[in-house]
Write a structure and sequence with these properties.
Length: 191
């Protein structure tokens, strides 16, 4: 279905249009969700290449495409390469949208995971700790961003050999998940 959407977008919007770039990126994202990472990466790279060339450095969608490619690259086991892409995306998103925008926060979160996978725990923790007050102030303590951020913070603290400090963010994340989903929901067990 997404392949047809890419074909239709290309026909309507042209091979360089924003709708075409978004459709190619969505196809890559879907393939990644289906765990077809090897097949997804060329589409994600194509979306980035087109965005860089035709949308340019002053369009947030360019950096969103780069960030999605970074996440895919990390999933494929290349966290160092992913971190370079995440940092490029973060620089552009900070410049265009600011640190408090949800897209920038998503990129910050994803880069913190790459940092943790590279064993750069203190940097991962610092990025996540910077996010928590921003999320609380901009989106509220029960926003959809809070529990995943606190879970990642707890995981990074634990990986850094600081399990005692990991308890509070993980307990807060669990309480948030239970409040939103209920105590019997299957996702509660993941926290």
């Amino acid at each position: 279905l997404y392949r047809r959407a890419v074909d239709a977008s290309t026909e309507v919007d042209g091979p360089r249009g924003e709708m075409t770039i978004t459709s190619i990126g969505n196809l890559a994202f879907l393939l990644a969700e289906l765990d077809r990472l090897e097949e997804a990466e060329p589409f994600a790279q194509q979306a980035v290449d087109l965005a860089r060339k035709h949308l340019g450095p002053d369009n947030p969608d360019t950096y969103l495409a780069i960030d999605k490619l970074a996440s895919l690259v990390r999933q494929r086991g290349r966290p160092a390469e992913a971190l370079e892409l995440h940092d490029e995306a973060l620089e552009g998103l900070h410049r265009l949208l600011g640190a408090r925008h949800s897209t920038t926060l998503g990129s910050t979160y994803a880069s913190s995971i790459a940092l943790r996978e590279l064993g750069r725990f203190d940097e991962s923790i610092a990025r996540l700790e910077e996010m928590v007050p921003i999320i609380r102030e901009e989106y509220g303590p029960e926003s959809r961003f809070m529990s995943p951020t606190l879970q990642a913070l707890g995981a990074s603290l634990r990986a850094a050999g600081r399990p005692g400090e990991a308890v509070e963010p993980l307990e807060t994340a669990l309480a948030g998940v239970i409040k939103v989903l209920g105590p019997e929901h299957h996702r509660r067990a993941v926290v």
